[in-house]
Write a structure and sequence with these properties.
The protein is an alpha/beta fold and 129 residues long. The chain has three helices and five strands.
């Protein structure tokens, strides 16, 4: 398989924020680039398909389309939750993004995103951010 650009792996985790902060956002989706360890956070008030698709489209237009070249292989790895819907799968397939899912109850399969969420949750609980 010939790949013109770098091999890129994206990790995703979606979790609930205990205390809703400014703007009433209770949920966040964390994208972690496993090569550079850059963390991108998107907040949402709801956990429905429409909100998830808005964030996926925003992430695709602002991040994936800016940093990937034609022929790059991009994976999005996530748990089997909100990212495993027909609407999300179809959108990512059209964007040439492959999905990988972790096994249920095996957070160690998505360590970068899990660690990023844990760090952010600790910062929120301590009032740092």
């Amino acid at each position: 398989m010939d790949v013109s650009g770098p091999y890129t792996v994206e990790s995703i985790v979606y979790n609930n924020i205990d205390n809703a902060k400014k703007g009433g956002n209770k949920y966040m989706i964390i994208f972690v680039d496993s090569a550079t360890r850059i963390i991108m956070i998107y907040f949402s008030k709801n956990r429905d398909d429409k909100s998830i698709m808005e964030i996926i489209k925003q992430f695709d237009s602002s991040v994936l389309s800016s940093f990937t070249l034609d022929g790059d292989i991009v994976f999005i790895q996530s748990d089997n939750g909100e990212m495993d819907t027909k609407q999300v799968r179809c959108y990512l397939r059209r964007a040439n993004v492959l999905q990988r899912f972790t096994y249920p109850y095996h957070s160690d399969m998505n360590p970068l995103a899990e660690r990023a969420f844990r760090t952010i949750a600790e910062m929120v609980s301590q009032g740092v951010c």
